[in-house]
């Protein structure tokens, strides 16, 4: 409680509560967790398709992923496939890609 009521007044302002909850619920996914999620969405393939992104994600998130993901050039890839394997490091800020 000392975080949201540092003066020990016995009350927590709404703004202090919002600030605290924002910090506590901030996106803490690691690149590995994000990659594991995409692997599930991709049906365990090494790439994901635009269709799969549109089918599984809200439109804004799908479009963001499509715009940010590099084309997949792996041996088992298909035309238009996207590389979700490198995307999590970009998303989580663990890479300069």
Uncertain runs with pLDDT below 50, 5 residues or more? none
Radius of gyration: 19 Å
Largest β-sheet summary: 2 strands, antiparallel
Instruction: Work out the number of β strands.
Output: 2
- Counting H and I runs of at least 4 residues, what is the number of helices? 5
- Secondary-structure element order, as H and E? HHHHEEH
CATH superfamily of the domain at 31-91, called what? EF-hand
Reconstruct the topology from this structure:
Elements: H1 14-24, H2 31-41, H3 50-56, H4 59-68, E1 70-71, E2 82-83, H5 87-91
Antiparallel strand pairs: 1-2
Structure in words:
- The chain has 97 residues and is mainly alpha-helical.
- The chain has a domain at 31-91: Recoverin, domain 1 (Orthogonal Bundle), CATH 1.10.238.
- The chain has 5 helices and 2 strands, in the order H-H-H-H-E-E-H.
- The chain has helices spanning 14-24, 31-41, 50-56, 59-68, 87-91; strands at 70-71, 82-83.
- Strands 1-2 form a two-stranded antiparallel sheet.
- Helix 3 packs antiparallel against helix 4.
- The mean pLDDT is 80.
Summarize the structure.
The protein has 97 residues and is mainly α. It is 45% helix and 4% strand.
Comma- or semicolon-separated keywords:
45% helix; Recoverin, domain 1; mainly alpha; two-stranded antiparallel sheet; 2 strands; 97 residues; elongated
């Amino acid at each position: 409680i000392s975080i949201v009521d540092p003066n020990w007044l016995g009350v927590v302002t709404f703004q202090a509560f919002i600030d605290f909850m924002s910090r506590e619920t901030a996106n803490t996914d690691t690149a590995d967790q994000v990659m594991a999620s995409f692997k599930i969405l991709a049906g365990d393939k090494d790439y994901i398709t635009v269709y799969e992104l549109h089918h599984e994600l809200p439109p804004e998130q799908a479009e963001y992923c499509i715009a940010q993901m590099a084309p997949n050039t792996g041996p088992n890839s298909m035309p238009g496939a996207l590389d979700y394997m490198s995307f999590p490091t970009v998303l989580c800020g663990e890479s300069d890609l």
